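Example for tutorial group B:
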């Protein structure tokens, strides 16, 4: 302090007083420079790339440096950005739509000042709207195949939207959002959907989606359905995969399901067994739960994207490029056909094989791989929900009610919510108190006591009549079965979609399991899916609301 006093010409007492008042020695001398968007983004990228020894300590230091430089409310948005929960009402699809609009209104790669600033001024409103929709579709389709703004934006600025398909293409190492299926509630619904078109049935395995990439350098990467890097979780898969490759197979992207596998009985084990594996940085020598890869699709092979080919062609390439290795790498069990009898027989086989049911897919017509879409060209037929709701729901736990009687000391009930991806909020959908064993209630109580919050989050939407005894952070997703769905004046799920002022609730909900494979609360069933499930019920078919958003869209 004496040195600082001498260097600054201030008295020692004043230096001491300022240090005490500001509680930070460094700030009393030199205020850090103001944060800029470019600086913060650069630091975020540095943090994301850190790995190896002392990576956590280094990340903490970087984050601390950002916090020291924060002013006003900046720290709040730094924290939200780092946790991936910005919550400013700006979804990914909104960003893409805005980029497309900007590029169309003021075409890039013009000399300065640009000659065209507002292209819409020279077009009719209808013509511009149609043109904008066409260009936005090109951008969104490109981003599906190449979900990396660092690659897309430079091309957009240099070549415009028209140049994107030629310069930003599918490539190994960059994870894709997978194609997803729509639920059904019976074989008749499936047959009506495909009419006379060819389709194929595949076993629906109770495992974890694994997108496996091999780059030109021979590096193998494994990604989850949420594009999370799971490579370090599966060192055993990486070590064994070479045995399944034909000599001509150099680069690829596989869509597969990783399942827990009993090598003695050669049978699939429940997902709960798979979920006990270490989530990352696993050591192959320490692995107890063995996995088998069930390969069902091939999206890229030896420099060529296959997503526009039909499923029949992709399957032929899959089988000719890879070799089955028992208990390690196998092709999904499938059967082609177009009859109810074939489907029922195969469904029975899947149940005997410890599977969840069937995936029914278009084989030749409308059978391309639709990246980032929940498509009606893939349908799931679950064994437990035929002629019922058609599917389970994955819901977030946001509150708890104290138990009484035998449940005293635990939570006797829970408040659950779906996720509205348009408004970035969790909407209440039901109170749940059934389906739990005593052991599960104890487990839930121990888990959620670490996630209690004093007040509900600003992005929780609920009715005060449902206010729980305790609020929880949205950290865990549960799979829930119900008898049916109904319009609710109290619950807020899908409010404004089916009814302008009322939401949707579940009747007789029942707990099935924790969705260990869904690590982000935003992976819960979304509001538009809830609305669609409600509308598909027989009792509401005659009054179907035409305003429902189609789920055959980018998610």
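The residue assignment follows.
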């Amino acid at each position: 302090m004496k040195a600082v006093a001498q260097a600054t010409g201030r008295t020692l007492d004043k230096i001491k007083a300022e240090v005490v008042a500001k509680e930070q020695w460094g700030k009393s001398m030199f205020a850090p420079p103001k944060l800029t968007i470019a600086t913060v983004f650069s630091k975020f990228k540095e943090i994301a790339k850190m790995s190896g020894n002392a990576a956590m300590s280094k990340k903490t230091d970087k984050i601390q440096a950002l916090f020291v430089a924060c002013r006003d409310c900046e720290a709040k948005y730094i924290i939200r950005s780092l946790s991936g929960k910005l919550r400013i009402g700006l979804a990914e699809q909104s960003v893409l739509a805005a980029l497309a609009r900007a590029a169309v209104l003021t075409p890039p790669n013009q000399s300065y000042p640009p000659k065209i600033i507002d292209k819409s001024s020279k077009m009719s409103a209808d013509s511009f709207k149609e043109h904008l929709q066409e260009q936005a579709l090109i951008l969104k389709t490109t981003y599906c195949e190449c979900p990396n703004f660092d690659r897309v934006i430079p091309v957009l600025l240099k070549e415009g939207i028209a140049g994107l398909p030629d310069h930003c293409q599918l490539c190994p190492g960059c994870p894709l959002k997978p194609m997803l299926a729509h639920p059904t509630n019976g074989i008749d619904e499936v047959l009506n959907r495909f009419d006379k078109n060819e389709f194929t049935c595949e076993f629906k395995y109770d495992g974890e989606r694994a997108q496996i990439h091999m780059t030109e350098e021979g590096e193998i990467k494994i990604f989850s359905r949420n594009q999370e890097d799971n490579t370090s979780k599966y060192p055993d898969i990486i070590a064994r995969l070479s045995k399944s490759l034909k000599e001509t197979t150099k680069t690829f992207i596989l869509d597969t399901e990783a399942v827990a596998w009993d090598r003695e009985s050669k049978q699939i084990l429940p997902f709960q067994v798979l979920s006990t594996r270490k989530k990352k940085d696993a050591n192959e020598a320490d692995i107890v739960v063995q996995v088998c890869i069930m390969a069902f699709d091939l999206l890229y092979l030896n420099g060529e994207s296959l997503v526009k080919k039909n499923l029949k062609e992709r399957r032929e390439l899959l089988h000719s490029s890879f070799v089955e290795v028992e208990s390690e790498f196998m092709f999904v069990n499938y059967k082609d056909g177009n009859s109810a009898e074939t489907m029922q027989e195969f469904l029975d086989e899947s149940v005997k094989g410890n599977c969840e049911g069937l995936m029914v897919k278009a084989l030749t017509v409308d059978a391309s791989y639709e990246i980032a879409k929940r498509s009606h060209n893939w349908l799931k037929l679950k064994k437990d929900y035929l002629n019922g709701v058609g599917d389970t729901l994955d819901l977030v736990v946001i509150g708890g009610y104290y138990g009484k009687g035998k449940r005293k000391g635990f939570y006797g009930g829970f408040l659950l919510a779906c996720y509205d991806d348009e408004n970035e909020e969790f909407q209440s959908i039901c109170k749940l108190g059934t389906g739990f064993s005593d052991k599960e209630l104890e487990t839930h109580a121990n888990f959620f006591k670490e996630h209690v919050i004093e007040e509900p989050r600003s992005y929780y939407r609920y009715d005060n009549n449902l206010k729980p005894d305790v609020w929880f952070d949205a950290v865990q997703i549960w799979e829930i079965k119900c008898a049916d769905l109904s319009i609710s004046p109290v619950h807020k799920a899908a409010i404004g979609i089916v009814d302008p002022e009322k939401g949707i609730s579940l009747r007789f909900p029942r707990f099935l399991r924790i969705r260990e494979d869904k690590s982000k609360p935003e992976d819960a069933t979304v509001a538009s899916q809830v609305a669609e499930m409600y509308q598909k019920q027989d009792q509401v078919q005659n009054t179907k609301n035409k305003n429902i958003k189609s789920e055959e869209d980018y998610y």
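Residues 545-551 have pLDDT under 50 and may be disordered. Compare this with the pattern of hydrophobic and polar residues in the output above.
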